[in-house]
Specification:
285 residues; two-stranded antiparallel sheet
Length: 285
């Protein structure tokens, strides 16, 4: 029987990777992540492929279209389908983006939420509603942004803290998004990390990004993870422990062995943290 506990280093479950994964999962992959919108109610060979992996590995559901910050009514049908899907597949963790992505139809982008008190109450209420339907606390992910919406009454950091406190939800920490936003908006990534509600972090992401010719940094999930992201991940482990961490890669897929080495690097950083923690504990014992 597989464990449903999420730990260690994980990899995004993408259809493009399934043929290679069938031939052999890299040894350091402890779990997989998927978008429930892309798999719920799926039949045929795709459903069989998924089941072959969910029977052997823990999975995380990371939503793409719940639209937590949007103006339209929350998609309760999607939430009920997601709850049923998670129960069927034995999945115990759901996370979503702290952004909005719909306005009379899906916009296929993750857009920044106005940084206002009104938005805090609006989003927190929607998160609580989602948690009630799913029957669990969910993790909300700090989003990458390329502009600050006009009329801001607080910083991104203050907004995140206020939302997770009022919603009483968990925090899904995307390390790459902190680095991207720090470069685009000119703040210190380490200071931002240290000021987050670290006790609420349940899950982490790392990914690659792209830098435009004008210096704008785009969160693409289509490139290798760079050193500043790895360094910030190591700092995050030092602050809040070796939280389960997933490598995101959505296109420009290298061979699975290359992705496996990045997952291995996550696992190595986690092991280094545990070794350091154990040394400290022995020293003070």
């Amino acid at each position: 029987m597989k464990s449903t506990v999420i730990s260690g280093a994980g990899l995004g479950f993408r259809r493009e990777l399934i043929p290679e994964l069938k031939a052999g999962v890299p040894g350091f992959v402890s779990f997989f992540e998927l978008a429930p919108e892309n798999w719920a109610d799926m039949g045929g060979s795709s459903a069989k492929d998924l089941r072959a992996f969910t029977e052997r590995y823990p999975f995380v559901c990371h939503g793409l279209s719940l639209d937590l910050g949007g103006p339209s009514p929350l998609d309760e049908s999607l939430l009920h389908r997601t709850r049923s899907f998670m129960q069927q597949q034995g999945i115990t963790l759901y996370t979503e983006h702290l952004s909005w992505c719909a306005d009379d139809g899906h916009l296929y982008d993750l857009l920044p939420i106005p940084l206002t008190e009104e938005a805090v109450h609006w989003v927190a209420g929607r998160i609580r509603h989602a948690q009630d339907i799913l029957g669990m606390r969910i993790g909300v992910e700090n989003a990458s942004t390329y502009l600050i919406p006009p009329g801001a009454e607080m910083t991104e950091l203050e907004f995140i803290r206020a939302v997770v406190t009022e919603a009483d939800c968990l925090l899904h920490l995307d390390i790459n998004n902190i680095v991207v936003n720090s470069l685009n908006h000119g703040f210190n990534a380490g200071e931002f990390l240290r000021a987050l509600p670290l006790e609420r972090i349940c899950y982490m992401h790392v990914a690659g990004h792209h830098v435009e010719s004008d210096g704008l940094v785009i969160d693409t999930h289509g490139a290798d993870v760079i050193d500043p992201v790895w360094q910030l991940l190591a700092e995050a482990y030092a602050l809040c422990g070796a939280v389960p961490t997933c490598l995101e890669r959505d296109f420009n897929f290298p061979e699975l062995g290359v992705l496996g080495r990045e997952v291995e690097h996550i696992a190595t950083l986690q092991a280094q943290h545990e070794m350091h923690k154990n040394k400290i504990q022995r020293a003070v014992a």
